[in-house]
Known about the structure:
By secondary structure, the chain is of the alpha/beta class. Strand 8 (about 330-335) and strand 9 (about 340-345) form a beta hairpin. It has helices at about 55, 70-75, 95-105, 120, 130-145, 160-165, 175-190, 205-215, 225-245, 270-290, 295-305, 310-315, 365-375, 405-420, 465-480, and strands spanning about 45-50, 110-115, 150-155, 195-200, 250-260, 260-265, 320-325, 330-335, 340-345, 355, 360, 380-385, 390, 425-430, 445, 450-455, 460. The strands form five sheets. The protein has an eight-stranded parallel beta barrel, surrounded by six helices. The chain has a three-stranded mixed β-sheet with strand order 6-8-9, covered by helices on one side. The chain has 15 helices and 17 strands. It binds beta-D-fucopyranose. The site of beta-D-fucopyranose has 12 residues, from loops.
Amino acid sequence: MNIRSFLTLSRRGLLRLPAVAALPPALLHPDPLPPDPASFNFPPGFAFGVSTSAYQIEGAVREDGRGDSIWDEFCHNPCRVKGGQNANIAAGHYHHMPEDVALIADAGLRNYRFSVSWPRLFPDGGSRPNPKGFAFYDRLLDALLTKGVTPWLTLYHWDLPQALQAKGGWTSRDTAVRLAEFAYLTSRALGDRVPNWLVMNETAVHAYIGHCLGYHAPGLTGQDNWFAALHHLNLGQGMAIEALRASGAKGRIGTVAACEPIRPSSPALEDAQAAERFDAAWNGAVLEPLFFGSYPELIAADIAPHVRSGDAGIMAQPIDMLGINYYSRLNIAHNPAYPLSAYFGANPRRSPYFAGGWPIEPDGLYEILTRIQHRYSPREMFISENGFATVGTDTSGAPLDDVARISYIAQHLRFLRRAMDSGANVSGYFVWSLLDSFEWNDGMKWHFGLVAVDPVTLERIPKRSCHWYGALACAHEAMRI
Ligand code: FCB
């Protein structure tokens, strides 16, 4: 089950900052027609891009010396992923890379966020490199730069080498050191062409869904695994940022967090308290260590057994930019069957939904951006992921004539623009995703791509949203000149 399948079921939230009620309700209504791409007034230099991740698109899991990742192991257990699917082929990007880069450039998009596969670069999770793996990312970086597309490289998007999982994975402190080593060596090899480094993708999701609920790889459960993973991911992030600096990386250095306003499922006091605890573990436990070196009071005692002296200073790193992944709010209810007695619950608001049961709440983006700006004043923020899914089996024509996706993007861009007007320092927006791809434990069921990928032939077909979003980026590019 995809984490956000739960969102249908989830206030108080992060930091009790400005209420959203003052915003005009008209902004919450979907656009009847695709709006004029030139009508969005983002400042010169604002980066429009698309995001992907290695495991979700590359395929070729057993080719050219790649090692297994925790996701290979997880997929090959037939009960874990919907329909027993795996990412052995995924979107076939490993073999279609030049075509995919051309799709980005031809659409008029000038920014691409992707991740490198750790087990493709270092198959056993140690310092022994796989030359063919490095050759692939060499070609990718060269292709992007030749086409005028700026690379935004994510180091870790959940695909830990299985060899490291065998030694405890993120429940072991040593994995943090291995991440730093991976960052250092990757930077030494590719760093001359990487203007933007992003260390992590969504620590909160990886720690909770993969190490507490067990719905994602590596499939661990329980609060202890959750908090051990959470702390070691935070520590690894800090060590990797230090390692990137030590490597002489010239690019800017940042990271990506899943930031979602948390609200209680009902007005009941126990739901409000559960939502506060969950907020501390979801948003607070990632952002507070990064910006202040500490954990929120509500969970600090639970996490303390994993923390050693000196960790605070490693976790709190100055960063050049913070990537925010936003899809919707999380609704939380009191539920004693789960750690922290908190779990996903009913949505107290009548929001429209898209495939997978994700509520469409673009005002939540305004809410989270203004809160983060107020509390942490990051040097720069960008939206590293935001996107809309259709169901893979939909044959209505909607998958290609995807006005609903255009409307979703347009609504989020409007609230993003509003957050900027209210002082949020945001410099870019990336749609999830370039391609229809492997959606983790939902397999190939949800299609997030601006470009459809035929599951048999792997033919790429740009959807209407791809043309519209590209036109929007071009209109802004033109304003710059
Ligand atoms: C995010 C993940 C990304 C993708 C989207 C839909 O949580 O970072 O890989 O699966 O959700």
